[in-house]
Amino acid sequence: MTYNLTNEDFLHFIWKQKLFYQNNLKTTDNQHLEIINPGEINCDAGPDFFNAKIKIDGILWAGNIEVHHDINDWNLHNHHKDKAYDNVILHVVARGKGETFRTNGEQIPVLFLSWSDELWYSYLALRDQRDWLACSGKLAAISSFEFSFWKERMLIERLESRSTQIKEVLKATTSNWDETFYRILFRSFGFGVNSEPFELLARSIPLTVLLKYSDNIKIVEALLFGQAGFLNETFIDEYLTDLKREYHFIRQKHQLKSLENHIWKFLRLRPSNFPTIRISQLAHLIVKTKGLFGVFINEENLDTILDLLNVDVSEYWETHYLPDRKSKKIFKDLGASSKNLIIINTIIPYLFSYGKNTQNHVFEDRAMNWLNQLKPEQNAIISKWKANEISVKNAGDSQALIYLSNNYCKKKKCLHCNIGHKVLTIKAE
């Protein structure tokens, strides 16, 4: 049959997993071929697989493998003029007619791959599945050991990804770890919807300025609300009027420029998640820790971290969600779910990144241990995995599955996923 290949991922997959027909393999010039090791995928420039080992007519060859849809792609991609491809020992293709040569004119052996129709249809079923979890309903065939192994891999990949993001912030702060934590902590108080404005707020206030006032809740709130752009109106309430007076003095003294308050989002947010409430909670956290964010990285006990995040709002905000608009009095502390999210999405990635960049594995191990101690997140993605009887015991599991869902499942990258590999392999077998 004719196979409509939209990219070479499928060919890479069946080559790496050796899922093609292997009985009596021969090159196009009729030499007997044995695949000892298909090699490792190359994610950089150059041939597709490196460190491969094959035997051609009983002679052992070690080198690189190049994979193409059509044999003529070798010349179309100008590999015959590129010395980086001279160490290719086998050209693997799916179709076409012709020959393959190195830059010096030497001929490179060519293998035409063939595979079962069942494997191809299984691949199409995954690729064309409308549900973001393409292998839903087939996961029972995957052992708990295999799935646990892949979850661990996804968790490390997730932390590595966050470490890369934190490294960019570190670069922007000229390698100042305190300033870096300050910025990502502020960002975490936006809980997604207002993350960008909170990061802008942190960048608008030099950490040295914040530290000067970190023992005075009134001044810290004046500084944060003022810089956030919430103190530009004329107010009825005495509390806001006092904050505005304090902020005017601080702004002049330190030559600060406030943000525009239109950047903050309130629409479709629960009132307890309004940025005004989060700013007051953040102010109390700054005062509670005296602005010394190092306590988060040097503390070994997770319960102590949870206690540090046990903050509420100033008395005014107990009866307000918006300036000058009184509401029913409610105690607005930073709830358990919010504390967990800050630890999971900010403190733990920071710990991991700090340990990785300073080559101190104690912090990386602590990050992993804390994830195993925290309860898993509860959302639609996790519910979907649970419906497929996938175990989600702790935050490490939930983080791994969320990362897997967003970066593999929803992008239909089944051929890059060990679970997708296993589903296809079982079907092929």
Automatic annotation (TrEMBL):
Official protein name in the record: DUF2851 family protein
Source lineage: Bacteria, Pseudomonadati, Bacteroidota, Bacteroidia, Marinilabiliales
InterPro entries: DUF2851
Domain of life assignment: Bacteria
